[in-house]
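Our working data are protein records whose layout never changes between entries. Instead of coordinates, the fold is spelled out as a row of discrete tokens. Here is such a record, shown just as it appears in the course material:
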Amino acid sequence: MISEFLKHLFPRVVLERNLRFSYTFCLGGLAFTAFLIMITSGMLLMIYYQPTPERAFSSVLFLESSVWGGKYLRSLHRLTSHTLLVLILLHTLRVILTGTYQKPRQMNWVIGCLLLFLTLFGAYTGYLLPFDQLAFWATQTGVELLATLPFGTYLRSLLVPDGVGQGLSLLRFYALHIMIIPMGVLQLSFLHFYRVRKNKGVLPYL
């Protein structure tokens, strides 16, 4: 799978017509690039962030006020997350409008939808981490809406066992945001690119 992924990024031959700019040019590749930028910037943010209710907000303030380039780094991470969501939504819209979710690409359509939902969930978990008033109440609203869904009460207790803003809940959001969700997105991305090659996508794949 990794070999096919690398061949997808660096094909030996590319048709000239596939290099022309269009309104759907490389939306998937751009989204994956944005994801890599988020991974890199997030790893740098982890150096200063402290995932405890007492120190989370103050560590963000320290990052922005006392660390060289810290404010730029946090803004880059936040804006890239917005860009990633927009690119994935546009990519999904292109797939729907062109009908490329049909045979023989149904499996890749399912993988793409999982990537979309996982990315949205990643953005939600990251929203709480600055731990300001906006983050707290937005997350509180989200978990209350979650409770209205089937099995929502169970999911809410799993995400926030001690309530939004408490130590265990913040730690779970932090673990989901920095490790579990990125690993899931990365593995699904490899599988997604592999299926594109297997289904003979837009490149000649030689």
User: Anything to note?
Assistant: The helical segments are 2-9, 27-45, 56-66, 70-98, 106-128, 133-146, 152-159, 167-198. The chain is about 70% helix and 0% strand.
